[in-house]
Amino acid sequence: MTKPSSPAATPSRIHTQGPALTASPVSKARRLLRWTLLAGATALLGGCASFSADGGMGAIQTATYADIGKDVAKIGDDQAALTAKDRVDQLLRKPLTADAAVQVALLNNRGLQAAFNELGMAEAQMVAASLPPNPRFGISKLSGRFEVEIERQIVGSLLALATLPARAEIARDRFQTAQMRTAEAVLKLAADTRRQYYRAAAANAQVAFYQEAKSSTDAASELLKRLGESGGVNKIDQAREFAFEAELTVQLAQARQQQRQERERLVRQLGLWGDDLKFRVGSLPPLPRLQSVKAIEAEALRKRVDLRIARAELDTLAKSLGLTQATRFVNDIDLLGRRTYDRSRSVNDHGHVEREASRSRTLELEIDIPIYDFGQSKVALAEQTYMQAANKLAEKAVNIRSEAREAYTAYRAHYDITRQYQTNVLPLRKIIQEQSLLQYSGMLNDVTDLIADARSRILSNVAAINARRDFWIAHTDFKHALIGGGSAGGSATVAAAGGGDAGGAGH
């Protein structure tokens, strides 16, 4: 056995060695029986941990359907891939709704599949941590001219075996935390996809409205051009109309660029490529009834998946701290069993060669004791890690309450803004433009007033589209502020427009 080179560099080890026992041939069967029983016990302990049939996905599927009513599946073989592809193709045949887009993303997004693979790795780590420590086998042979010594040994960690139940429980807790993190990834993808769908739908609506306005402006410009040629309209009025038409052309080009950009962002969320890129985005949904929620703070504290993750991590740290305190005075305990076979030859006084053979067994216990700090640094580190997690959990609980209130406030404000546009602003703008056109036809006002009214109506319609987009993003933020998974990612005031048609734009 090799001794430490410096007592200051390595904790001291206490070696307890039993007496050497001479083995008789009669006891060979007994030794074989004992080794067989030891191997059988090790195999029995190893059989206690195994992989689940679904790789831990059952909990993810149940939680996802309960929270957002959608299906998830891990693509692990060709059959699962074909089933998911058929479902995606079926959804893409019709114009996508927000719910359909979320379902496509959950089945087709490869980043989410990578999160499922990570869950499988976490299960493998759990199973590995739940198994007994592997024994270490060694054999050596020392031979000379007249002597042969063969030594066989087996070494196992008693401390690892004694703490196996506690370590296995901690490993199971960590796997359950990994499941909650995977569920959080699912919810985040669902929220991000829904938000991006609304932006893409609003971008489509803006393009449709600008195209309609451009068509009307082109007809008016052609009319003023003919009137100018006949002298019925002066050049300044013609210039104002042509400038208005040019501005609309620029705005339409900008809206189309925004439309392409938002669509590509949605494509990335859905994980589509090739022929699947021909999918159509539906329109922005109409304004629903106002959702009234009581005790939103309590509901968020009860449902938020990130808070449940923080609580689970704190519980696991508490168990780890208990294990650290229990083993603070001993770093490791190794039990070593050694069998030695010696064979030698000698020449007696008569010149004859005599052969001698002996067998012995040794039992050695090796204990690693931290004599310099008695485990204080290890325990202090565990305690500070636990208190850090406890303080972060308390901070998260405070923040979640505030996030729930903020999300509801934004949801309610955007609802009122969108409703104001639909019930008051757009109808009044329509009346103003109609009356302005009548007065212009009756020569009661000039083209300047007509262009100003038309420009104001265009701005109001675009603002109404953006308000409806922002409401649905705020609606998504509010929902996920209660359940978690991307609740902080949806800024309703993003300049990006979303998709849909112009049906609700209030033309």
Automatic annotation (TrEMBL):
The lineage of its organism: Bacteria, Pseudomonadati, Pseudomonadota, Alphaproteobacteria, Hyphomicrobiales. This is Outer membrane protein TolC. InterPro entries: MdtP/NodT-like (IPR010131). Residues 1-15 have a biased composition (Polar residues). It comes from the Bacteria. It comes from Bosea robiniae. Residues 1-21 are annotated as: Disordered.
